[in-house]
Amino acid sequence: MRQKYLILYLLKQLGGTIEGETKLQKLVFLGKEEFELPFSFSYSWENFGPFSGELRDILSNLENEGLIKIEEKKRLSPLGDPFSIRVYKLTKKGSKYLLEHIAEINKNTKKHIEELIDIYGKQDLKNILNYVYKTYSPEEVH
């Protein structure tokens, strides 16, 4: 099963949009670890926990194919410091592409993605990071 179908389906289940690469990275990581989703990405422990350069590359490829759009949004921290956050959006072309390939995602995988979103999708990043930091250690991430 191709990784990009899973990512597109994940985005669709999130309502077509997710704010923040860190949150997306953690959702995919938790999907792999806790829901046995067939993601084959390798992870390393970075500043904000598990990170996959392979996932970042696939997201970039999806944008180059016009299947998702990645936008930079300017924000202010609680202390008033400016920072940028990436917003990932499923495009019309991406939705159509997913519809054409949806049969390649098996029923159990779809169910597990939906469960992942039900549990973690609406949580804010701080809660997800706290959970990941408490549950996983750098030595366990691969």
Blueprint (SSEs and pairs):
Layout: H1 3-13, E1 17-19, H2 21-34, E2 44-46, E3 49-51, H3 53-64, E4 68-76, E5 82-90, H4 92-101, H5 107-121, H6 125-135
Antiparallel strand pairs: 1-5, 2-3, 4-5
Helix pairs in contact: 1-4, 1-5, 2-6
Commentary on this structure:
- The protein is an alpha+beta fold.
- It has a single domain (3-134), classed as Arc Repressor Mutant, subunit A.
- Helices cover 51% and strands 19% of the residues.
- It has six helices and five strands; from the N terminus they run H-E-H-E-E-H-E-E-H-H-H.
- The strands form two sheets. Strands 1-5-4 form a three-stranded antiparallel sheet. Strands 2-3 form a two-stranded antiparallel sheet.
- A hairpin with a 5-residue loop joins strand 4 and strand 5 (82-90).
- Helix 1 (3-13) crosses helix 5.
- The mean pLDDT is 95.
Brief overview:
The strands form two sheets. The protein has a three-stranded antiparallel β-sheet. Strands 2-3 form a two-stranded antiparallel ribbon. A hairpin with a 2-residue loop joins strand 2 and strand 3 (49-51). It has helices spanning 3-13, 21-34, 53-64, 92-101, 107-121, 125-135; strands at 17-19, 44-46, 49-51, 68-76, 82-90.
Largest sheet: 3 strands, antiparallel
**Do you know the CATH architecture?**
Orthogonal Bundle
Radius of gyration: 15 Å
Segments where pLDDT lies below 50 for 5+ residues?
Answer: none
Give the total of beta strands. Answer: 5
List keywords for this structure.
142 residues; alpha+beta; Arc Repressor Mutant, subunit A; 5 strands; globular
